[in-house]
Amino acid sequence: KKRSRGFQEDSRSFKLLPRPPRAMAGSGFLPAEVRGYFAAPSATLFAVGTASWVLYHLAWCGALKALRCFEPKVVPVVANRIVSTTCAVLTSFFSFLLFNQLENNRYSTQHLMRAMDPETVFCGTVLLSYLLFDTLFELRYFTSGWSNVVHHAAFLAMGMINAHYGYMQFFFAILGLTETSTVFLNIRWLFHRIKVPETSAWYLANGIALMLSFFIFRVALMGAILYQLFFTSNWWPALTAAPAPLVMVPIAALPVAYAMNVFWFGKILFIAFGTLVLGDRKLQKQQ
Predict the structure, then answer these.
(1) Which residue in 132, 205, 269, 286 has the most C-beta neighbors within 10 A?
(2) How far is Cα 215 from Cα 30, in angstroms, rounded to an integer?
(3) Cα–Cα distances in Å, from 257 out to 23, 171, 184, 219?
(4) Which residues lie closer than 8 Å to 113 by C-beta, 6 or more apart?
(5) In this model, does residue 186 exceed pLDDT 90?
(6) Contact between 225 and 168 (Cβ < 8 Å)
(7) Which residues are bridge partners to 3 per DSSP?
């Protein structure tokens, strides 16, 4: 038998061990002095991350109010978009670094079904702490409706359980990559706020980038991973090694979140059609 972080493996099955996961050996993009802090994720880790996003948001609120660029009631929402973009850039960048290590098999879905990796936990901490902050923000200002709250709650439940029990860690990097589209989504929101014409080259280029990144990472990549997860049998023993009630959380949360991604992509296609086709007709009428 081979013992790995959080799991015991034999030729037929995986079994969860009641001991905390340990950092895997080898080097990563985090400095050696820092890697140990992310060897065993805890509620404290997520609390510190969430507090950091709150302070960052308050700092931007103060700066925007001092600059008087927006109406006071809009300032918290603009600041939240800045925080969201920062999180998206960080998580997508670090996730690309993780996937860059696929070549030496240090980082792979099969390995991280039963191991903890400090760099992966770091990405997960950045993303999950932001989702927790954004959930609190939505409950306070309710700018995007209940869909965002449900989406965040699903990923928070899945992510925190996975981080605590040390299995399915590879999903943190995939979730980080899906945040790539958030950058273009926030740019579109800003263009709309400052009234950039929908038929302008910048607006159209950003819309195309949003549509492509959303489809590649949130629909195609995540769909492929879900297909393997649910239809490749050798992943099931590791998945069902978690405590019985908790294993249902990722099983239920992932399809729900993916269905929401498909729904949102349909809305993006509808908006793109309206911009490219109907927007062009409006321009012809004006001419």
Answers:
(1) 132
(2) 30
(3) 29, 13, 20, 11
(4) 7, 14, 167, 168, 169, 170, 235, 238, 239
(5) yes
(6) no
(7) 8
**Mean of the pLDDT values across residues 163-183?**
78
Tokens for 245, please give them: 């009630």
Q: Which residue has the tokens 């405590």?
A: 243
Token pair of 243 as six digits: 């405590």
Taking Cα atoms as reference points, which of 154, 149, 145 lies closest to residue 134? 149
3-state SS of the chain is CEEECCEEECCCCEEECCCCCCCCCCCCCCCHHHHHHHCCCCHHHHHHHHHHHHHHHHHHHHHHHHHCCCCCCCHHHHHHHHHHHHHHHHHHHHHHHHHHHHHHCCCCHHHHCCCCCHHHHHHHHHHHHHHHHHHHHHHHHCCCCHHHHHHHHHHHHHHHHHHHHCCCCHHHHHHHHHCHHHHHHHHHHHHHHCCCCCCCHHHHHHHHHHHHHHHHHHHHHHHHHHHHHHHCHHHHHHHCCCCHHHHHHHHHHHHHHHHHHHHHHHHHHHHHHHHHHHHHHHHHHHC
14 touches 238 (CB < 8 A)? yes
Burial (CB < 10 A; 0-12, 13-18, 19+), residue 37, is middle
What pTM does this model have?
Answer: 0.77
- Structure token digits, residue 69: 């660029």
pLDDT 10s digits, 225-273: 788 777 765 666 656 655 556 666 767 777 877 888 899 898 888 877 7
Each residue of 124-149: b (16+ CB within 10 Å) or e? bbbbbbbbbbbbebbeeeeeeeeebe
